[in-house]
């Protein structure tokens, strides 16, 4: 049975499926989906993401460049201990709690995963200090799984573009994973993250430089404020 051609396309957030695809097409043409955190192993990436909470990637890269000269395995972190690790990362905000989480997850990796970083969200989230966002970053960037981690940048961009109206980061992540076309899902995290970091900024978005200007339902709001 043929469907009526007049039937409206179902909406996704406040956008249609065609509009969602157009957004990703524009982002893919303008952005190289490349992580800005530096890492050389799954453990490096996991530690770097834990350190990056409420901190810039640049600051994390500066600290890890020194840290990783001598610390390469979970046992290396445990040998360094709380005081030693705190000293190594002291320039980063919340360094005491982050050191505790890193030592906890390293102990858990040795105890339950033979010292290897697991490749499922459920197992990653069993590690101290690892929530859905951190797990999703590791799964996406290291294990190349098509999952979408949501930080403050992506949360903001998703709402401004109408990709999700959900009130929490985890719910936005689920929405994005459900609506993002398969072709773009693997790199969607970095498309949205880098767009939010450099163009769709929190206080004053650069709407006049935005490749999504004609597609964005929020542009008229910010244009009216100028």
Highest CATH level, the class of the largest domain = Mainly Alpha
Strand order, main sheet: write it out. Answer: 1-2
User: What is the total domain count?
Assistant: 2
Q: Encode the helix/strand succession as letters.
A: EEHHHHHHHHHHHH
Major sheet: 2 strands, antiparallel
Q: Give me the Rg, rounded.
A: 20 Å
Number of strands: 2
Low-confidence stretches: 1-12
Q: In the CATH classification, which architecture of the largest domain applies?
A: Orthogonal Bundle
Brief synopsis:
By secondary structure, the protein is an all-alpha fold. It has helices at residues 17-30, 42-51, 57-67, 74-88, 95-113, 121-124, 132-141, 152-161, 169-179, 182-185, 188-198, 219-225, and strands at 11-12, 15-16. A two-stranded antiparallel sheet has the order 1-2.
Report on this model:
With 226 residues, the protein is mostly helical. It folds into two domains: 91 residues, Endonuclease Iii, domain 2 (Orthogonal Bundle); 100 residues, Endonuclease III, domain 1 (Orthogonal Bundle). The protein contains twelve helices and two strands. It has a two-stranded antiparallel sheet. A hairpin with a 2-residue loop joins strand 1 and strand 2. Helix 2 packs antiparallel against helix 7. It is elongated, with a radius of gyration of 20 Å. The termini are far apart. The N terminus is likely disordered.
